[in-house]
Amino acid sequence: MVFPRAKRTYQNIQRLRNIANVLIKHGFGSLVDQLNLQHYISLGKRIVTFKKYELEKEVHTLPERLRLAFEELGPTFIKLGQVLSSRPDLVPQDIADEFKKFQDKVPPFSASEAKRHVEKELRIPINEIFSSFDDTPTAAASIAQVHNATLLTGEKVIVKVQRPGLRQILESDISILFYLANLVERYLPHGKLYNPTGVVEEFSRTVRRELNFNLEGSNATKFKRYFEGDNTVYIPMVFWSYTTNDILTMERIDGIPIHEIKKIEEAGYDKKLIAKNGVNAFLKQILEFGLFHADPHPGNFLIMEGGRIGIVDFGIVGNIDDDMAESLANTFLSIIELDYDRLIHEYIRLGFLTEDVDIKAFKNDLRDLMDPYYGKALKQIQAGKVMSDIFQIAVHYKARVPNDLILLGKTLLTIEGLARALDPDIMILEEAKPFATELIKKRLSPTYQMTKAYRTLSDLGEIVKEIPGQFSYVLKKVMKDKLKIEFVHSGLDRFIRDMDKSSNRLAFALIISAIVVGSSVIMLSGKEPLLLGFPMLGVIGYIIALFLGLWLAISILRSGRL
User: Fold this and answer.
1) Hey, which residues does 238 pair with through a beta bridge?
2) What is the pLDDT of residue 260?
3) Average pLDDT over all residues of the chain
């Protein structure tokens, strides 16, 4: 078992050497030095590389150089760049804009390799599954490629095949990204402000979801169920018998990509109706289903026979819970009515704004954003752009905007662009109004409120049930002297010591006070024996109190905390 570990360590060192070389090549030599990565590169090679590529700084901007470096570092960094392109809350806007240029198109791997991977995953010879399997893929990306095929039973399908060995490469690169994130937090002055470790954690979750084709198939099945009976939208069927984590087999649908306007016109379809149906389908997803297609690439929307919209590729989806859906409904209505107070209320209600946010300044920025829309027709207001701008303002004020909501803003912007290419007069906000109003009415209905109250009471009941058991458990631990409390706050130990000293001094002062009071009572009693005409015990008490008081005063003065 030692050999594989040593091999993995060697591979990681080689990969770090490669990353350092690429960073230097694209003008990030100072970053390599700051992160202490220079020891991965020989001195001679560093000098040659620095001299050879230092001029690149003058040719390309920093965002361009970063994009070129990510492209050269391969699929993991390309995917990271694509994720960051939709997260201007994590990277500066100019870098996010540059990362939008990433093209997820890479050379395909061989058909024989694809077939071997299918057979390995499904554990069945390929000729016992498909009557035909096209050697040339219809699409190839960094994660997978797609082949057309026909099942022995006659159904036309697409087979999405994950790149062999990709999972291992991504996992290895993700572990290296965590290592680099720790270096950024440790060595860069403001590294922690950008929470690089959190960024890598989020990226790893996103990529692992994309790598799980079972999850993608599950998403497609949910969408098919949601749109059942809707004759404006069609979702292809998943063939679960031929689907695994690495292989996805789905019904093949044919149609015209939604951005090919001329072909849609030549086919005689009603462009305005398609635009309206597409927008309504998206609004249903976010305001009714709570699950939305978050990869609105034009090629993922096909206009099928009769003008029906076929939706494919469910690798990236966003989730909207009940509270967020209600907030979105109120947001749409607020934008329509240009109601700043309601918008701010929604951010506060969902906990996006922290306590230290300047609400007045936030409100003023919202007013500056929305005032120019006064007097304009709804068709002149781009809902997606307005929402994205609102999110940008929220990010500026360090609001905690969930990733799904930022993803929604990006998706809405793209959907709106596609819809307006088909129908420039379409009004997204007008289309959203009935959905939003209906959702608000539903939330205010007695039935919904009773259901919500019942759930709340049930949750409280479960908590109450658990209290005796938890209390009993803690009590038993205390009785057995096995309860250990660990204080993780770095300054808490010192605080406890200071409190201990203070309480000791207070107790000491109380003792001195008691001696003085007791001695005074004895002095007033006049009881013998006497010393210099005063009761001896009273005099001794005063002397003891004097010495103890001086001792306490000296100790306080020495501590420097008078």
Assistant:
1) 250
2) 93
3) 80
Give the span between the Cα atoms of 113 and 120, in whole angstroms.
10
Residue 322: active-site member: no
pLDDT in tens, 180-237: 988 888 888 777 766 788 888 888 888 888 899 999 999 999 999 999 999 999 999 9
Residues 250 and 236: beta-carbon distance below 8 Å: yes
Q: Note the pLDDT of residue 296.
A: 84
As given in the structure block, the two tokens for residue 450 are 């009773």
Which among 18-32, 71-85, 202-216, 245-259 has the top mean pLDDT? 245-259
Alpha helices by DSSP H, listed for 188-240, are: 196-211, 213-226
Distance CA 558, CA 345 (A): 54
Q: Are strands 139-140 and 144-151 parallel, antiparallel or unpaired?
A: antiparallel
CA gap 350, 347 in Å, rounded: 5
- Which amino acid is present at 524? L
Pick the closest to residue 292 from 391, 405, 440 (CA basis).
405
* 532: phi then psi, degrees, rounded to nearest 5: 60, 35
pLDDT classification of 503: cutoffs 50, 70, 90 = low
| Lowest mean per-residue pLDDT among 94-98, 330-334, 520-524 | 520-524
Closest C-alpha to 80, from 171, 203, 196: 203
The residue extents of the domains of the chain are 105-227+235-252, 254-444, 492-559
**Higher pLDDT pick, 535 / 560:** 535
Q: What is the CA radius of gyration of the chain?
A: 34
- Alpha-carbon span 218 to 223, nearest angstrom: 9
Name the nearest CA neighbour of 196 among 91, 113, 106: 91
For residue 529, whether the previous peptide bond is cis, meaning omega lies within 30 degrees of 0, is yes
Tokens 């010192």 found at: 494
Give the range with max mean pLDDT: 109-118, 464-473, 507-516.
109-118
Structure-token pair, residue 10: 């060697």
List, for residues 466-475, the tens digit of each pLDDT value.
666 666 666 6
Please name the amino acid found at residue 449. Answer: Q
Q: What is the DSSP string of 260-277?
A: -HHHHHHTT--HHHHHHH
Q: How far apart are CA 148 and CA 156, in angstroms?
A: 8
For residue 402, give the DSSP letter.
Answer: -
Q: Which amino acid is at 154?
A: G
- Can you read off the two tokens belonging to residue 362? 């936030």
Coil/strand/helix, residue 90: coil
- Write down the H helix ranges in 270-352: 271-284, 322-337, 340-349
What is the dihedral sign for C-alpha 312, 316, 322, 323? negative
Q: How confident is the model at residue 491 (pLDDT cuts 50, 70, 90)?
A: low
Question: Which of 94, 104, 134, 295 is the catalytic position?
Answer: 295
DSSP code for 289: I
